[in-house]
Amino acid sequence: MAMCILVFLTLLILPTSHSSSDELYIDKSAKIPQSDLDLLEFPLNLEYLEAEFFLYGALGYGLDKAAPKLTGGGPTPLGAKKANLDPFTRDVVLQFAFQEVGHLRAIKNTVKGFPRPLLNLSSESFAKTLDTAFGKPLNPPFDPYSSSLNYLIASYLIPYVGLTGYVGANEKLESPVSRRLVAGLLGVESGQDAVIRALLYEKATQKVPPYGITVAEFTNKISSLRNKLGYTGLKDEGLIVPKSDGAEGKIAGNVLAGDRDSVAYARTPEEILRIVYGSGDEGVPGGFYPKGGDGRIARSHLKSA
């Protein structure tokens, strides 16, 4: 009996010991190569965007109130506001919002980082993106803040781009500290994207009022636009695809995007900048970043533009 009690107590202690080792990825004393620092710093551009969009959508305010120290004194986003969300969607979005606050802190605990860049989260910015995706102006202009469905469609624009960036960065990282951080961030960003896609997939054949266009077609148009802007072929897929392009070439439903082996696609920082700027050129800012992104990688392209 004494031996059983000893084994039981040992098992209780072990998880605590393991948990503390997981905090190594924020160890500032670890030596991280400059190339890693640049790749870890770059995602702050997208994490700022996600944090502000989700915070404002759920709460009506952003980092300036929720976590002012993380802004680095950067300018307040343009046009962001509280969305007209049903209780369930607001709950999910609020969880995303606080997760993004944690992401910003985790990155800034590892690299110096930079202040929040100027972000344009106005309805007009999203409307312009959707107009470009459809190749014509939507009437009325798309408003991401007007309903839960519109907000989820707008959310489809965001986490997926970041997760492809983390997949692309991972193979270039040298330090175990860097890889641990990126793996952790990728896990949650992928989860966010999966939740958004699943919620939209449930409504895939539903028409978005007042456009008479299905949810699936919205996602397909957005994914096609990102492929076009990225200039590197197919790395983005909507919710319903030709059966030959689905998992194992056997299904049209596409709740998760992936290559022929259902492995996540990877993007470079340059591809991401082309997409989020909406210009198709990593040296020409615009879209959600009127003055461009920050960090060594983003600034290097602005200087050469």
From TrEMBL:
Keywords linked to the UniProt accession: Signal
InterPro entries the UniProt entry points to: Pigment-catalase-like
Leader peptide range in chain numbering: 1-19
One Pfam family per UniProt: Ferritin_2
Protein name: Desiccation-related protein PCC13-62
